[in-house]
Amino acid sequence: MFFLKRIALQERTNKIDQSFSDPSQCLCGEKENCTSSVDEILDAAKRLDQLSLKCNEADEASEANSTSCGDSLNEEAQHGKEDSCKGEESADSIEDSSLCRELDDSPPTSVGEAKSRVEDALRELMEEGIPFVHHESIKWGKQLGKGAFGTVKLASCVLFGQIENAAIKTITASDREFNERLKSFKAEALISWRACAKKRTNSQLRSRVCNIYAISYHVVHEDVGPSAHLHLLIEHIPGSIDLHKEISGSKSWSNLRCDGKDTGRRLRSRYVTIDEDGDVFAYVMPRARKLHFAVELSWGLAELRRADIVHCDVKPSNALLQEKRRGKSPGVILIDFGEANFSEQAKDWNAGTPGERRR
Fold first, then answer.
1. Among 248, 335, 349, 351, which is most buried by a count of CB atoms within 10 Å?
2. Model confidence pLDDT, tens digit, residues 108-130
């Protein structure tokens, strides 16, 4: 009976695993985007482990009964002790093999192997509660930005039963950097998810941290071998610009000298800069506006501190400005947690771009 239950549950678990690559295989029957398979995966995995443990105990009991007919009680106790030692050795061998897989830095040699590594990483993220969406359900839009390790594009997909606009950050893992990029994506997704806990627990509270919606991926074969495109679906803030553009914009500067001639404008700032052409500019952003941005950033950093997270890369380009709220100054949203870390692990890192270990 245990054997038949194990087969049935294993078939159901295999069906759940197929939902990673085929949206039509979702257990709920939805052929569009579906996030309900997350709980199903975790529940099936737990039940499979519990049933396997019961089966093993039943097999051991049956074997002990068949071999202990002419044995004494002492021999039975010794036999049980040997089985226990074997079980411990088996557990140690499983842990050792898992450790070997983590330490294996070799790139995947096939698309199937790459998918297997990515799905293992995504399962750990889904255990944290991060929803998973299928790549086929995403409708891609224009590119919003590009960084050293990936791109950000506008997209739309079905999230929580309704169509949502999202900014999707894509990190490409390939060749010798496959495992490193996959590890970086996993860390950024986990930290980003925990950083925006305030917005998830109470949507009525205003958060200064960018929200994360879900994760996704797809694997293709390229010239360098299998390449995994890892997607992080984050909150899209319409009409936003970053604080760097606000600071460097023409409204924040007054031209005091142009083409070697004074413009006659009054110096209203202690901060003055000279460009490559010798023109002189004074920084004239109003003091009240500068204080407003400083307070907004402070609230954002305090929110991260409550989540036990250190950003490690706070700079104007990583602070988005929201649209003006009924005549008020725009709010500030902290983004990009690629260099962020938890407080305990961040002790050995310097803040800045990029983060570097202290020597």
1. 335
2. 989 999 999 999 999 999 999 99
